[in-house]
Specification:
Layout: H1 2-16, H2 26-39, H3 56-68, H4 76-112, H5 118-133, H6 137-142, H7 148-168, H8 171-187, H9 192-213, H10 222-252, H11 277-280, H12 284-289, H13 305-315, H14 323-336
Helix pairs in contact: 1-4, 2-3, 3-4, 4-5, 4-7, 7-8, 8-9, 8-10, 9-10, 13-14
Length: 337
């Protein structure tokens, strides 16, 4: 079964993949987890390289370790692998909710057609599921110590319940989607995207309701008002717990960065051109011929937004040197197009 395969992959990853693999900020994330283990509370955002991130992932990793090491007798090497194991467990849950979302979408597609071609839909379904499971950046994420994997989990869960709410118009999946969005933001600030998605969908439903029932804006059904209020409350709570400490610091230091606090410490070599050409060019030949991209080397496409987005979605920013992997990277880049 799928869960047996997942368990085997978990064991293989723990045994053969290094705990510091596929991460440029590994030490910063590890320092954050160590801080949570030692003090049990989130650090100041300015206190370490990765301390600006919201704390949920690091709280979970610290709790996972404390449950394993109740007598404070396990060796340090086991600590590193345990944090990696916690990420792998989260990744398995992320796969579950992603596959559940894919399944939900295809069931709705079948239900929406009077005479669906089930053979075609099943083929596309299997191709979609296979593409997700075989996506090359997935194993990189699964083995990595960092908050990305928890962000992916709650993002997938929120999308699933958002789709369920969109389909049924029930309040329960709507509230669960918002709760998952809150937890996603607490994992990584990119989760604010979810509130934007849900807000746009709710606004569309609201306007469609008004148009269908031919009523004035001010006297629309209260259920939409309650939902808008719920989004505002979640946004306020998320902003307070994500940026509250930084806002206090901003009052003393106007140069305080709200989202990526360590951006001022990054090398100028990472800067790219922000002109319109960066968003309107895409070198197809280079995309296939050059297996991996780089955040520093211009000749590997970093100045093209869409090129860099596509390459990093496949392989991240990592340079792998195995001949077989390079051949695979060329092939997957071609298939991606």
């Amino acid at each position: 079964s799928l869960w047996t395969v997942m368990l085997l992959l978990l064991i293989v990853n723990l045994k053969y993949l290094s705990h510091d693999l596929f991460s440029y900020d590994y030490q910063g994330h590890l320092d954050y987890v160590n801080y949570m283990v030692s003090y049990g509370e989130a650090p100041l955002s300015s206190g370490g390289w990765s301390f600006y991130h919201p704390s949920l992932y690091y709280r979970f990793a610290a709790l996972f370790w404390n449950l394993l090491d109740t007598n404070n007798q396990l060796p340090e090497a086991f600590f590193f692998k345990s944090i990696q194991a916690s990420s792998l467990l989260i990744f398995i849950l992320y796969c579950y909710w992603s596959l559940k979302t894919i399944d939900f979408v295809f069931k709705k597609l079948i239900a929406s057609h009077k005479k669906p071609d089930k053979k075609v839909i099943k083929t596309v379904y299997l191709l979609t599921t296979t593409a997700f499971l075989a996506w090359p950046s997935n194993p990189m994420t699964s083995a990595r110590v960092g908050n990305d994997v928890l962000f992916y989990l709650f993002f997938a869960m929120s999308i699933y319940f958002t789709l369920k709410w969109w389909s049924t118009d029930q309040i329960t999946p709507f509230l669960i989607a918002l709760l998952c969005a809150l937890l996603d933001i607490w994992s990584k600030t990119n989760g604010f995207i979810l509130l934007g998605i849900i807000s746009i969908l709710l606004a569309y439903k609201y306007l469609k309701y008004i148009q269908t029932n031919k009523i004035l804006l001010g006297i629309a059904n209260l259920k939409y008002l309650y939902k808008f209020i719920a989004i505002i409350c979640i946004s306020a709570i998320s902003s307070y717990y994500t940026f509250g400490e930084r806002f206090e610091h901003y009052q003393k230091d106007p140069n305080t960065r709200f989202v990526v606090s360590n951006a001022g410490g990054l090398s100028n070599r990472l800067l790219v051109d922000r002109g319109w050409q960066s968003f309107t060019t895409f070198d197809i030949e280079k995309f296939v011929k050059i297996p991996f991209t780089s955040s520093i080397e211009d000749n590997k496409g970093r100045n093209s937004f869409w090129y860099y987005l596509a390459k990093t979605s496949l392989f991240g920013e990592f340079q792998l040197h195995s001949s077989f992997i390079i051949f695979l990277a060329h092939s997957l880049s071609f298939l991606f197009l």
